[in-house]
Amino acid sequence: MELPPLGLYIHLPWCERKCPYCDFNSHESDVIPESGYIDALLRDLREDLPLVPQRTVETLFIGGGTPSLFAAGGIAKLLREIARLVPLAATMEATMEANPGSAEAGKFAAFCEAGINRLSLGIQSFQDAQLQALGRVHNADQAHAAIDFAKAAGFDSFNIDLMHGLPGQSVTAARADLDTALAYTPAHLSWYQLTIEPNTVFHKRPPLLPVEDALAAIQGDGERLLTSRGYGQYEVSAYSQPGFQCRHNLNYWSFGDYLGIGAGAHGKITHTDGRIQRYAKKRQPAQYMSSSAGEFRASYRTLDQDEIPGEFMLNALRLNRGFTVSQFENRTGLDISVVQPQLDQLFERGLLQRSTDTIHTTDLGRRFLDSVVGEFFV
């Protein structure tokens, strides 16, 4: 069993205002205890290092919350100290999420200088009415300015995060958002439908969303536009120009390994003896920051053998390319025969297909992905 690539996820949980659709571990605060939190992150990382002895971090992702609320000097210190603790690949992709409301030209340039080489901008829409409906703190002008700042700072690789299926949104309005985003020629575009998640304001007070036929029309029109502009869809909601796929997220979807540090962060580690373990850190920032050695983890468990196929498929089948038999066997430590009955059934139902040496969803299978994946959970 080969050890997969290793990523590092860092969670910075604070934001200016909690969006009504957001179910992430994020917390509103006017004052961020930046220095204390960075110290806690580094203690947390030191505690995790025995899980990955001598392994090199190939990708790094700073998510939130709104990581760009942190000072550039704090991010620089964090990256500098991480480099002292763990081997980093010379070609490491280092992504950071940023919101337009916290965008400053000088700050973005300093992030780039600190070692961030990929920025993910939470634009969501370029229309003020839609941004207000989503509870965003920025407006359309700030969205445009943030992209200009990113380009001026030297970020050749940046992602625009854009939603569709917004309250009252028409096909024309959704197309206008996409056209505006594509005019900036981003290397990567995350384009996904707004969904109502439990434990959110929108779940308690749902907005009026487009009906199914309208959602399907928006999706179809957008996919045709993206294809015509040279953006390849490689995952359910991820599109990129050639060579600019998000390597960190690809590692997740390929059942790779990742350390997770920060309040509420999750990790997944494969060991040389074949064990696959998942863990999560304490969610509340204050509780997380006050943790001593051995106290950062809220949960830690080894996956049972019968859980592993479902865990693998939950990730790999999100990719348009799917997976190879050798990849399944290398990443899970299992023989493909353990899932052959489910594969045969899904082939017969037209939900999966085999192309040369890969297994992936059909167009129909992608529409009913949750049902396809569910077949692999016992």
Question: Care to describe what's here?
Answer:
The chain is α/β, with parallel strands linked by helices. The model has no long low-confidence stretch (mean pLDDT 95). Strand 4 (57-64), helix 2 (72-85) and strand 5 form a beta-alpha-beta unit. Helix 6 (171-182) runs parallel beside helix 8. It is built from 15 helices and 17 strands. A 9-stranded mixed sheet has the order 9-10-8-7-6-5-4-1-11, sandwiched between helices. It has 2 domains: 6-251, TIM Barrel (Alpha-Beta Barrel), CATH 3.20.20; 308-374, Winged helix-like DNA-binding domain superfamily/Winged helix DNA-binding domain (Arc Repressor Mutant, subunit A, Orthogonal Bundle). The longest helix has 17 residues, at 212-228. The two termini are 23 Å apart. The chain is 37% helix and 24% strand.
List keywords for this structure.
378 residues; Arc Repressor Mutant, subunit A; three-stranded antiparallel β-sheet; single chain; alpha/beta; globular
Layout of SSEs?
Blueprint: E1 6-12, E2 14-15, E3 27-28, H1 34-48, E4 57-64, H2 72-85, E5 88-98, H3 105-114, E6 118-124, H4 128-133, H5 140-153, E7 158-164, H6 171-182, E8 188-193, H7 201-204, H8 212-228, E9 232-235, E10 238-240, H9 247-253, E11 257-262, E12 266-270, E13 276-281, H10 285-289, E14 297-302, H11 308-316, E15 323-324, H12 325-332, H13 340-348, E16 352-355, E17 358-361, H14 363-367, H15 369-374
Parallel strand pairs: 1-4, 1-11, 2-3, 4-5, 5-6, 6-7, 7-8
Antiparallel strand pairs: 8-10, 9-10, 12-13, 13-14, 15-17, 16-17
Helix pairs in contact: 1-2, 2-3, 3-5, 6-8
